[in-house]
Each structure stands twice: as C-alpha cells, then as structure tokens.
Amino acid sequence: MTPPVLETKGLSKSFVSGTERVDVFSGLDISLAPGQSLSLVGRSGSGKSTLLNIVCGLESADCGTVSILGQRFDTGDAESPRARERRWASLRRQRIGVVFQDANLMPALSLADNVRLRARLAGRSTTDSQDWLQRLGIGELANRYPDQVSGGQRQRAAMAMVFAMQPDLILADEPTGSLDRHTADEVADTLFALQADAGVTLVLATHDTELAGRCESILDMAHRNDPGPGG
Amino acid sequence: MNAAAALFSHYRRHPLQLVALALMILISTMLWSGMNHLTDQARSSLGRAEQSLSEGSQVIREDGAPVTVADFARLRRAGLCVMPWLEVPDPDGVGRLIGIDPLAAACFASGAMSGEQPALDGEPFIDMARAARLAGSPGDEAPPLVLLAADSVSADGLPTGYALASFARGPDTGELGASFLLNLDALGVLVLLITALLLRAVYQLSIVQRRDSFALLHRFGVPGKRINGLLMIEVLVLAGVCVLPGVWAGAQLARALGEGFGRSLEGLFDVTLYADGSQWWRSILVMMIVVLIACLPVRTLPHWLKRSRGVGWLGLGLLAIGMVWVAWSPGLVWTFVAVGLVFVGAGVLVPRLMAGIMATLSSRVDDPLGRWRYRELGVMARQLALPVVALQFTLALVLAVQTLVTTFEATFEQWLDQRLAAHWYVQVPEGRSGDRAADWLAQKLEPGTAAWHRIRRGTVMVDSGAGPSHRVDLLAVSPIGPLMEKWTLQSSLAHPWKLLADNQGVLINEQLALRYGVGVGDSLVLTLNGRVQSRTVLGVYADYGRPSGEVLVNGADLPADFQPEFESFSISPGGRGEAWLVSGFERIWQVPEIEIRENSDIRAMATRVFRQTFVLTRAMTFLTLTLAGTALLIMGWVFITSRAWYLQLLVTWGLSRREAFGELVRVSLGLTTTVSLLALPLGVWLTWVLVHRINPQAFGWSLPMAVYPGFWLELLALSTVIGLGIAALMGRQLRPGRMVALPANQSGGGER
C-alpha cells in the first residue's frame, strides 16, 4: 500500500485571547494519498490557514503528529527546535509548494526571475521559467514585474512557480480569493489541470464552495466531519 | 471615536515611532541649541574684544619701540589725556585681567572711556599697581604697556617721536574672528540640516503608513483640510513638548563643552569666553519652525524635476558647479555656499546612484537569490533616501573632521618638536639682560656636543609696500644654529638658515604671508627703534594656533638699543646638567632662584591645551553621527517591517529562519556599507576643502593634506554595526509563529 503523502493524528491548536483559551481545532486526523485533493472550508477563524501553516511547518501544533512525505513531526519528540526547523525547511524547499491568496511573488523580481528563484531553491536549476509561464498562459509577461500585471496574472505566475519546483504536495490558501469570478475559474481550471497532470497532492483552503467541490474530499473546519467524497 | 482619535491611534499601535520622533526632535534641538549657545557666547566675546575700544586710539612711538612709563609721564606732562593699559593673565583662572589707572582715566570724562564706561561692563579691571605686580610674575611673558589716548588727543598735538594708532586688544582678529564664527554657524546649520532631514524622514514614514487611514477618514466625510489641520496640530504639540527640554539639554551640553571651547577661543584668538546667557527663545522659535518645515508636506514638484533623469542631471550639475566653485571661491562665505551645492548635489545623486549600482549588479548576477538581494537594496536606497543621505553626509563630515583633527595633531606635534628641540628652557628674569648669559653659554658650550640660542621678542612695524604699515610680532633668535635648522618651512629660498645667519633676510610666519600677500623673495621694510631696513623674505614657516603675523630675524641684526618685551634661552647643554646651568645663570643674573623648565613639560602642556581646540567639533560630529545612525536604524527597521512578508516568503519557500536572517543581514549590511563607501569620496573631498580652503580662510594657517585609511575602516566598521543593528531588530520578525500580515497597499506587488 502506498504510504500517505500527508497524515495528521490528534492534531490540536489553540490560542490565548486575553485570559481565555480558544480552541482552533483539536484531535484532527487527516490522511491523504498521493495525487489526492482535499479542500478545507469553514468560516473565517475556523483554523483553515492555521492548519495549512502547521502542515508546512510555519507554525507548530500544541499536540499531535504530522507525518508528511515520510517524515514524522511529533510535538512530544525531544528533537531540538533547530533540527526540526531544518527538516521542515528542507521539505518546503523541495517538496511542498505553497500558494497564498496574495503576494506570492517578490515585487523586486520579474515574473521569470520569481519562477527561476523558486525552482532554483528547490534544486531545479535547469527549469525553463519561460516554459512554465507559457504553460500558465502568461509567457509574454515574463519580463514584467508583479505590479505591472493583473491579480489573475500574478496568481498564474504563483502557480507557475509552484509547479516549476515539481512538488509532491501543494498547499493553497484561498488561491482565488482576491480574483473576480471569471478569472478565479480560469485560475482554478489551470490549478486542477496541472495538479491532475503532475499527480500532485493538493490541500486547498477556501470559502468558495464551488471551488471546494472540485476537490476529491472536503473538510469543514467549522463543523468538523471526516473528509468525505467531494462533488 | 472622532477623527482626531482615529488619526492619532496610529501611535498607539506604533509607540516606538512616536518615541523615535520625540527623541529626534529633542536631540536635534539639544545639538543645535547647544551649538548656538556656544556660538552666541563666542560672538559676544569676540565682539567685546573688538568693540570695547574699537573707537579708541593709542599713542605709539614712531621708532617702533614699545612705550614705557617714562613715555606716559612725558605725555601727561605735555597736558595730553592718556591712560596706561596693561593686560595680564589671570593667575586664578582662564582669561586675562586689565590693569588701568583710575586717576589717569579721570580726564577721559568726555571721551569714549568716560562716565558709565558702557563698553567695559563685565571686563575684569584691576588697579594698575596690581597688574604691574602680576606682570612681573616669574615664568610669564611680560605684557606690553599701552597708552590709551582720549578723543581730545590729536596727532598734531603729540610731541615729536610719537604717533596715534588705533587700539585693538590683542591681535587684529577682525576678519579671522568673523570667519571663526562663520565656521561655527556653518557647523550649526549643517547639524540643523541633517537633523531636519532625519526628522522629515521619520515623520514622512508615519504619514505613508497612515495614508490608508487618511483615505478612509476622507471617505467617511472628514474634509482634507481638517485632516491636514489635525496633522499640523500633531506636529505643533509634538514640537512644543520636545523642543523645550531640548533647549534645556542644549544649555547643559554647552556648559559641558564650555571649558574646552573657551580654551579654543583663547588659544586661537586670545579672546576670553564670557558666559553670557543665550537667547533661548530664539532657539525655541527656530526649532519650532524647523520641525514644522521638516514635517510639512512638499508641494508638487515641477514635472521635469519629477523625472528621475532630470533630477539626476540637476544633482550632477550642482555637484560639478560646487566643486569648481570651491576651488576658485574668493572668500569663506562663497566656499560654504559651494560646499552646500556639492552636498545638495550629492544628496540628490546618491540614492539614484545606489539604485543604479544595484540594478547593474542584479542584472549581472545569475543566482536569482542574489538578484533579489540587489533589487531589494535598490528599493531600500530609494525608500530610505533621506536617512541614507543624512547618514552619508554625517559619515563624510566625521571622516573630514577626524582627518583634520588627526592631521592637526600630527602636524602640531611635529611642529612642537621642532620649536622645542632644546632640552631646557630658561626665561631671563625681569630687569636682567641676556647679554652676559649669552656670552657665558658661547664660551662654555662646545658647538659640536651642545646647542643653544637666545630668543628675544617684541614688535616691529612692517611695510610690505602693498598698503599701510602694520605692527607685527618680532622673534629674534641668535645664534642661528642646529636647534632651528630642523624647522620645516612651507616655502623658502635655497639655504635659508645660512642666509639668515648671514643677515641676508628674514623669515615670516604663514599668517603674515597670507594676510599681507607676502611671499618668498619679496622685500619687507622693517622699522625697529627708529631704524628702517629693507629685508628679503627668505622663507615662510608654519605658526599654529594664533592669528598674529610674525617676523623672525637674526638676533645679531637687532639694534643695540632694542629692549625686548620678553627674553629666554633654549639650551641643550650636551654633557652638562641642570645644576650647572642653574648655578651659572644665578651667578650671572644675581638672583636667588631662576626657573628652568624642561621643554618636554611645556610640550605636554601645549599638546593638552591644543587638543581642547577640537573638543567641540569632535563632540558635535559624534553626536550627529549617533543621531544619523539611530535614524537609519529606526527607518531601516520600519522599512524592513513593511518588507517582512517577503522575508517570510523566503522561509515559506524553504530557507531556514537562520538562512533568511542571513539574507536580512546581507541586505542591511549592503545598504550601510554602500552608504559608507559613497561617503568616503565626499569625506576626502571635504577634508581637502577644510584643509586647503576653509582653514586658511578662517584661521590664517593651513595644514598638509593627509588621508588616513584607518578612519575609513573605522567608518566601515561603524556602518557594519548600524547594519547589524537593523538586522538584529528585524530578526524578531522571523521568529516562529510571527507571520506578519502583508500591508494592504502592497497586495498589488509592493515597491520594486
């Protein structure tokens, strides 16, 4: 049996607001096989972005285990923070692609240089940035800077960056949240087409139920159910 | 919540920015008002020195000899209203006392010195008898007696052999004193300019950060005028709260630096610093205006100026004009104007130059991370243009002042070594002559193993042929021997010492050469004790720390009846010891005790006093540097906070936080190091201007130009510290769990 790309067990996270302790989520179990897609839905503050940050190591859980691409991170481990940080950094660098709602690009670099930078960090030194931008339909904008293109074009460039690094897992946090309906659909079409083509696992946080429905399974963070079939 | 509360809530979220702004106003006010306080005191003191008796006149002897008590008696017997005036050093402290004869002054009743004597208020007058006793104190140079003449005394009414001359206390410092004050004013204006730049930078940042709030308030119906009015009130309140303690702190600073500054004034101009109260209200007013101007929004620039290339050309043009102008400027004011043009030009060019350099470097780098780094530096250079320029100016100023001071110290020490080449120094006691002592030394000391010379000082009338005669100091030395031949001359004929020994001419100091336009080979007409002689200028020697012109003659060339105002011997007795010298002199002069001093002690004391000269300048530049460094630190911090998202993006892309911090350090250091490197040529140029243009124009003497690469390294180290400080402050943003939200106005891509 193929091991899961992402598996969480008993994952909990809370924060302190004034004197009150607020649970974001607790006892969260997820398991995603290679090539699967999962959407996280729920109202603002339900913990979608927090979960994405935890499963890429940008934040830490209060307790529980995250197993990702064969590496296990347990909050109970005696591993030093520095060693843990190194393992997470290595995963993010080479195997996990992250797309945010906005500002996925370095403003001081052209779109092509952004793609090259991301690919180079992932160790894909021979990546043709022009080719990836072309595949995302913005090849003619390669030498423009982020502030010289539209929001939809910036998100396409962000996806070009992620796919150029050839990841095993993509974490997308509201990737179409700032776009109009038409552009959002175009960007989503591209995302799912490339994901299917590359066989990459995808975790997508969104408010958009239509977009969420395009994933194989949906996890409602506000009224948590087990991930069920999408559609 | 009303509009004001909404507007000012910014500082609740950014309290450090408010603290930085308040501190900046306070420190700026302290620096400028402290500087202004001292300048006011200096101006007042120099003014008193020149004005107290500026309309007075004195009776002098036509033969050039100093007047004596006998001359006073003869003039009084002739029915003329004259009064003796004797200035002596204050034995209890810094400064001078003035001996006058109240009885003799009675006839001045209707003259300038009469009645309430308004010009003399605050002067430390003492009775002539006490002044005469102090003048006779061992170890002090005997001061010359002056005979002041009342308005009723006319040149025609004087007995034969006497003439009227204007009376000015001490040497003629008029132009030099004004230049010195101009120097202080220029330093004060520079401090004000730098601090205004920094203030503007910090305040503008808070405005930029609040732009979205302003737009929101405007959409909610608050008129733009009301928002501007509220901002104006904010600035006024902030200035009001910070300027007052700043002025108080400035007074404390002036008090702390006062002693060193007073010594400078005495050393340079023989003028005592009077502790006058400064016009504190003026400091408050000026600082309020400066704060308002610095914080007010800039009106729209002309279109051609907005274009980067147009501004670049303007900067280049100003820079070029300023540099050419400095080289040819006829006076100190024009020199400062030209320096100002160069600074403005450099200020306009540097941020653009830095951005251009970074763009070029980024295009040449293949590594995309390296390209990002250079691009970020280019953005920083533009965004932080004001503090970058302020830091560059300050670094250049520090480099120039540091170089000037070190050059001065090195030159002065070498100069002292030459002047104090002998081991012992002996002053001829009051009422004794050096003739017999000179004969004794010539007889007893063998020229091969020992060396000595006799120094006699007085004054001499000099006519350079280009204007009226001037009374200048006279330095007569004999014999001309090895103790003098090591003197470094600024210019000379071949074998000047041999020519001097053969009475073929005289040497003059730099001050005399500069002031009267006299050079090597020119002829001077000297009038001494009625004897008129024409002498060729054999050479020009450096004579630091005083404004007086001086002529050095061979002592053998003095008239037989010359009465020195001061006489001493410099002796390196070879194998003979101190006891031999002391007993010999005591026997010759028939005095119970003589004072013999080691020149090394005198040298140490002179060095100590001279170092005080630059205490103020050093302190001001250091404080300004601290201010500029702090401002860049704060600005860098605020700027990088707005870019923190992009550093976190690097972390998201797989750089460890340590690696991302490394990138932050590289960018911070890149900025501050580039600023320092660009400050170096400006600093070296400024050193040249100080040494070759401002110093001779302001003080009458110049220094050799020197560069000290060690200082460059020090400045680079300092900029490294500032860069590391920015990175250390920013490092907090990269800690785990501190994801900083992207500023709303940057979602479209941010500044590039």
UniProtKB/TrEMBL annotation, chain A:
Gene3D superfamilies: P-loop containing nucleotide triphosphate hydrolases (3.40.50.300). PROSITE patterns: ABC_TRANSPORTER_1 (PS00211), ABC_TRANSPORTER_2 (PS50893). InterPro entries: AAA+_ATPase, ABC_transporter-like_ATP-bd, ABC_transporter-like_CS, ABC_transpr_LolD-like, MacB-like_ATP-bd, P-loop_NTPase. One of its GO terms (molecular function) is ATP binding. GO terms for cellular component: plasma membrane. Residues 6-231 form the ABC transporter domain. Keywords: ATP-binding, Lipoprotein, Nucleotide-binding, Transport. This is Lipoprotein-releasing system ATP-binding protein LolD. It comes from Marinobacter santoriniensis NKSG1.
Automatic annotation (TrEMBL), chain B:
It is found in: Cell membrane. This is Membrane protein. Its main location: membrane. It is a multi-pass membrane protein. Residues 187-296, 620-735 form the ABC3 transporter permease C-terminal domain. Pfam families: FtsX. Keywords: Cell membrane, Membrane, Transmembrane, Transmembrane helix. The chain crosses the membrane at residues 16-35, 186-208, 229-251, 280-298, 310-328, 334-363, 384-405, 622-646, 667-691, 711-730. The keyword Transmembrane helix applies. Signal peptide: none annotated. It comes from Marinobacter santoriniensis NKSG1. Coiled coil: none annotated. One of its GO terms (cellular component) is plasma membrane. InterPro entries: ABC3_permease_C, Membrane_comp_ABC_pdt. The keyword Transmembrane applies.
